[in-house]
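Form 12-C: Joint structure prediction
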Amino acid sequence: MSEPLADESDLALIARYGRGETRAFDELVTRYERRVYSVALRMCADPEDARDVTQDVFLNAMRALRRFRGDAQLSTWFHRVAVNASLDTVRKRRRRATRPLDEAGEQPSDDPGPEERAGASARAAEVQRALALISPEHRAVLVLHDLRQLDYAEVAAALDIPVGTVKSRIHRARIEMAGLLGHIRDTEPAHEADPLRERP
Amino acid sequence: MTHHEQHEQLSALLDGELSHADRTALERHVETCAACRVTLAALRATVAEVRALPEPEPSARDSWALRAALARARASETRRSRAVIALGGIAAAVIAVVAITMQRPHPATEASRVADAANFGTLILIQDQGYDAKTAPDLLALTLARAAPATAGGGNTGGVANDSSLPGSVAGPGQPTSPDTYAAQISACERTIPARDGATATAYLVARYNATPAFFLIYEVAGNSPHAELWVFRRSDCSLLGFFQRAR
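Section 2 - Result
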């Protein structure tokens, strides 16, 4: 027996929630939990932080969605709140050393793990580590565009920045990642006048 | 366009974010510029590796912790609302409206549910007893201690309802309600639990948790790490009051 709420649109669920149907909100949680967690984990590079950020986002949503006007997409709203909450956490805990994640976003366990986890998995772990090394602002545009598949306009809406800024940030973020991952050894002087690193 | 500007356009080219005219011009440039081709290749490789990262998934524990946090926040909002009402000077009509909107609609009784109720009847145990975070996990220990599913008792009564090893066992005299009454409500709470393979309901207990009327749903979960789970729901609205796990 399928839950009828699963077929409702986001806006219909928000409208129901506004009228006091708490189950409608529960359905939205089910619908967006994974997306929010995914952004939080790739942004924070720490599963506990990601869990806390996810909770904060939905606690926020519990209040905010009662007044949601539907003038923006709900997914844009969740992405914005998830990135902002993640940025807050990252900035607050910048000094705390975070242990690197393996490619599944898990804390690597002490045991070696199954043999097939060599090769491709090790590389993915390096990619995740590189992502955790670039600036949070660069990480945000890459997470939203390359991982969450938002286009430039959607990224701009989520981060409340101009599209032109999205474009230049994505490019710089990728150049930085390319350097960390070994796809660009040295930048040729004719190409890149700006310093690559933009750490505040 | 200076060379530097074109460089930034390369990412936009990869992402399909250039106008048709700009894209054509840039593609033409790239054909003649080795340096841009190198950069483009590096960007492509980088994007591919980032996109290849698997999508992280919250653990079941994270999910329940989230729902528990939301339930607690909702409960404290409810208490605040009720406190406002208790201050008096509010019309009875307003109170009635608030009470209605805070209730969860109960699922309608259908023919199939009557059958379910019969099955539930074997698993539902009613106690007047109270549990808390310290004593609730004992239910799991008892669950795991039972070596085999309840076949020994024979027929529908199973091993649970008459299991005198459980503290405060069963419906004695003066117990007004039958298990069937709770079946639909327990069903509603059970539907809020994330689906999971290999989980078998062991018992449904109607009792109190921290003095709040609650349902205790106990499962045995098979698989790589077999364990027992206890989900505690507030009877009135299926909000999650507690969750406990215990490995074999």
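Section 3 - Comments
Helices of chain A lie at 10-18, 22-44, 47-64, 74-92, 120-133, 136-147, 152-159, 163-181. Confidence is low (pLDDT under 50) at residues 109-117, 188-199 of chain A.
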